[in-house]
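User: Fold both of these, please.

Assistant: Here is the first one.
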Amino acid sequence: MSKPLNRALLIVGMHRSMTSLAAQWLHHCGLHMGDDLYGAGIGNVKGHYEDKDFINLHDHVLKNNNSHWRNSSSQKFEFDKYSVEKSKMLVRLKSGLYGQWGWKDPRTCLFLDHWNDIVPNARYLIVYRPFTEVVDSFLRREFKVKNRVEYILEMRKYVSKFLNYNRKKEDNLRLWMHYNSSILDFLERVSMERFVVLRNDQLLQNSDLVFKKITESWGFDLDYVPVKSIFDAEITKKAPADLLKGVDNRLVEKASEIEGQLAAYSES
């Protein structure tokens, strides 16, 4: 009798970076992504494919550190005894039940060192998306109006949003930089054999090669399903060329530098 698998795959990436598509794809390929998944919403009509066990744990840690997933300031997060033991318990539970499994939650970007200690043999599928597209996606989600009546009833709220439009662009750009800088810091300390970095469109174009890496190099036992068979083209709208007009050029230059570093990993 063959030895049961015991493998964990973390899907890592900033919010609005198509990590939900990656998680949905691996779910269809046969990887267990969670027992209680966070459902569909205004920005993810097909579901987020996020395991609520990990979302709740991450939110607990953020709250204990007086932080939030939208906080872009650099800080070292302290895990209380409950959070450490809950992390270990979740890994024991998932490994014992499923043998090969994974999870996706963008907050994972903030806690990569912690999870590396808890799951030292985990593999990482890292997906990044160009910062202009992520900022644009955040804005489109925030300013999306379901119907004219809703807009009229909450007109003051939407007017307030538009008056702070440039500030919201800058806030979302800082958030993109924070999450992706956290990823880059982690990649400097972990073996390259344990991760793959993809730009979001590479996931669409090269899902067969990604699948080969996951199964042949990392040893996951899955059945191939092309990403394009579950892909919704609506989630890849291109950002307007002048999207970041009014944003501090120094921020844009720093974001470009971070994106270039991620691109170097994706091309290696």
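And the second sequence with its predicted structure:
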Amino acid sequence: MHLSLRHWARRSASIALLLSVAGTAVIAGPAAAATPPISDYGNTVECRYKAKGDGPAFNFRLKKLVVTAPVLYGKKSTPQVVGWRFIVTRSLNHDAGPWTETYRSPIQKRSATATTAAAFTTRSVGVVIPDVDNVSSVRYHVTLKLLRYRDDGSVKSRVTYLMPWMKWIENGEGNYYENMCLAGYYNGP
């Protein structure tokens, strides 16, 4: 097959552009990973861990789940009641399940409009780890339940949302994100 010089130059320029875009994506990858992920509803879940001792090795145990409030608007310009709650589920067998509900928060209701979000507050719950041989096999997930109410107080619509990211906080510090919380784990040499 014979390629003209002009065709070869265009093909080389296309390949160079493609490699340039790929190189930019590789360089931008780690910077994007450093950005904290947020849910589709603007809220976060923190897995708060504690470990005793001075280190350098730690046996971290999950003590608390902190769920920041979702950003939820009404569907109309006049005030509408909206609400939210979170549900904690646990598996004793890694991600294989079965998943058992361990906590259901009370529903928090507030007024919202199409332009003003509900003034919800952060919620949290302490965690009691079951007595098992391997605490790192115990997993926790958090699911949001978002509600919109009719004027008569009945539920008009519901959204269920499994939180995709949870921030792990170790002894007050951390920025590691995962799609679940472990009940406990070892971190050290």
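The helical segments are 5-34.
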